[in-house]
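---------- Forwarded message ----------

FYI, see the non-specific serine/threonine protein kinase record below. Original note from H. follows.
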Amino acid sequence: MGNCLASSARVDTSQSTHVTSASGASRISSKTSRSSAPSSLTIPYSEKSNSECLPTPRSEGEILSSPNLKAFSFNELKNATRNFRPDSLLGEGGFGYVFKGWIDGQTFAAARPGSGMVVAVKKLKPEGFQGHKEWLTEVNYLGQLHHPNLVKLIGYCLEGENRLLVYEFMPKGSLENHLFRKGPQPLSWAIRMKVAVAAARGLSFLHDEKSQVIYRDFKASNILLDGEFNAKLSDFGLAKAGPTGDRTHVSTQVMGTHGYAAPEYVATGRLTAKSDVYSFGVVLLELLSGRRAVDKTKSGVEQNLVDWAKPYLGDKRKLFRIMDTKLGGQYPQKGANTAAILAVRCLSTEPKLRPRMSDVLGILEQLEAPKNASRHSPTEKESVQQSVRKSPMRPPRSPLNIPPSASPLPPSHRQSPRVR
């Protein structure tokens, strides 16, 4: 990664709200952490990465003066989006709205609709819950982080009460839209694996440097797709700097999305990279089953995807019962079984038993390769057998019914409201 990162914005834990989105995904935000440590913690990096480190931002001014970002005026973005006209609206959530806009590819000045470069402009509601802090965190991280599987932040606007962010446009919207909304063509097995690999690459990038970043809000609505179904992670409003020195975790206010948040994080407020791994396991289950992490339209155990699916994941003879019917049976049985075993490992109730994202990525890359459509390669077979030995099937606890998480509205399709 080569960057020293730390979010300068502390989270105010004096408020707590809980809203449920139309999709049933709840944003989580706890009033206090049960751990003895403060519920909000900012950890500046004292360690240096092997590669050149950017200075740790210590003030809002430093963060906003990032050389990688353009500071737009409100009028420029007003012109770029045709005065935020309703027919430019791409999505809407608890934090605000996302509009389609056009800017000159060289100068970044507002361009005529249909000319220049298409962008997605996120406009925060002034009354949004902790909106400015999350907005600032997003500018901080995406202003410094650059990777093919992270959405590109082009610039921002901070003018009076107006806070906007300008991103690259992702024409196919979010993974959530393609998996759960009526209309889009069902995703094939190959595309689902392509998305899983790309998302795993993005998380691995965040986790594997000394300047570790914990994403904290990995979910289907935060995975955006370009025209070729290349996936990129978006919405870094909840990202946190990982533990440094001899620390094993970061103690922080519990925030995330109900159904995706790791149970130990929900219970204690102790955040680690393994919290992201759990969330990845939930999304992997969504890719396999075509079901939402939480679906309030269903009853009993079927409301929570992890609770419903776990009895079938460890038995390849029963796995077909949870596979998405929209796949029409067009998937490799061995590949699906490998993905299911990987999901079991990611969803372990013991964080230490969950694999690192780099290991998850390695298994998924083997699954994505065409040669594995009919049979496993020896290395993959070994890794699957090791997975079974290391992680006997344990029923993961479903996250407590706590406040939900931040979700950047993917350009191009209506998003469910962002909730907490």
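H. also flagged this: The chain has two domains: 55-168, 175-390.
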